[in-house]
Design a protein that fits this description.
The protein is mainly alpha-helical. The protein is about 30% helix and about 5% strand. It has helices at about 5-15, 30-45; strands spanning about 45-50, 60.
């Protein structure tokens, strides 16, 4: 699909057709530079964009600093 804009390709990879008003619709007009800015922003916040996951709702990555000193992984 080389004739399609980048955003349409991204939308096809992340769309959720069974949801009314799929939030991924706005990806259709996303440029490569806009996507790079999204990726940088989410990376700084401790999140990653996963393949077949949404670029709008990236997966969180837990902070493992100091985990060796914890007695339990359950908070509280």
């Amino acid at each position: 699909m080389p004739d399609e804009p980048f955003g349409m390709w991204l939308f096809r990879e992340t769309q959720v057709p069974w949801i009314t008003d799929d939030p991924n619709e706005r990806l259709k007009n996303l440029s490569v530079e806009d996507f790079r800015q999204y990726a940088r922003m989410f990376g700084q916040g401790g999140a990653v964009i996963r393949w077949n996951g949404s670029s709008l709702f990236p997966s969180k990555v837990p902070d493992l600093i100091g985990i060796k000193d914890r007695k339990s992984l359950v908070s509280g």
